[in-house]
Amino acid sequence: MRESNRIACEVLDLIEQHAKPGVETIELDRLAEKHIRSRDAIPAFKGYRQGNSPPYPGSICASVNNEVVHGIPGERILNEGDILSVDVGINKNGFFGDSARTYPIGTIAPEIERLLKVTRKALFVGIAEARSGNRVHDISAAIQEYVEAAGYSVVRELVGHGIGRSLHEEPAVPNYGKRGTGMKLVDGMVLAIEPMVNSGTFRVKVAKDGWTILTADGKPSAHYEHSVIVRNGDAEILTKVA
Ligand code: MF3
Ligand code: CO
Fold first, then answer.
1. Cβ(98) – ligand 1 distance below 6 Å
2. What is the pLDDT of residue 51?
3. Which parts of the chain sit beneath pLDDT 70?
4. H helices present in the chain, as ranges
5. Residue span of the structural domain in which 21 resides
6. Which of the ends of the chain has fewer CB neighbours closer than 10 A, N or C?
7. What's the 114 CA to ligand 1 centre distance in angstroms?
8. What is the pLDDT of residues 108-130, one digit of tens each?
């Protein structure tokens, strides 16, 4: 788990250096895939199937502005002032890693910068609740309360998840909920916690490509994700470079 999640972090560090105005999102996808293969790992999203959608074509998800998650990399060119959410999944030796960040492209408006800051902080507010003895929805409620107090909304249709021998395992880790409910957390459990925060309504819709999730009101959205080990104390973040 440490290895696969470290590779996820390496990919996001690499993309950070290349997510600049004038770049096409498919170029970032190619960079990511090349790095993943160089580490003898497999891009876990590529070919991923869910419901009636076609197999996911990318190694990363690249979601711009009003795209919440699952944006398909393509010829779209990043512009100054955009935000880009990149999500990457790794399979190394049958163990999975998963992480996401939202990058500013060049200089962004102060209110969008605030959206990024609040979403990133919401992730850490959630991670602080990922300790043995707590329950899953303690994480959820902490994220929801923090985000809504900041004047934003949390997406309901997509959730965080357990992760391990599969990309998506039990339990679901929603970004909204009621404290003291949900599965009891125990030492050693690994969770992918991933707040998706909308600047307007929490409502979303699916684009015609069958994958891209869009905000219903067209306003920008941000996404940060870490995979963490639940501990009897502070959770251990796996999606970082040691
Ligand atoms: N990254 C998503 C998650 O964190 C899953 C994306 S699946 C894909 O759960 F097929 F769209 F890549
Ligand atoms: Co995930």
1. yes
2. 86
3. none
4. 2-18, 25-38, 110-127, 136-149
5. 2-237
6. C
7. 25
8. 999 999 999 999 999 999 999 99
- Residue whose entry in the numeric block shows the structure tokens 């070919």: 47
The answer to whether residue 228 sits within a structural domain is yes
**Number of domains making up the chain:** 1
Residues whose Cβ atom is located within 5 A of ion ligand 2: 98, 192
Place of tokens 């605030």: 114
- What pLDDT is attached to residue 78? 98
Cβ(224) – ligand 1 distance below 6 Å: no
CATH number of the domain enclosing 121: 3.90.230.10
Q: Which amino acid is residue 37, in one-letter code?
A: R
Measured from the CA of 167, which atom of ligand 1 is nearest?
9
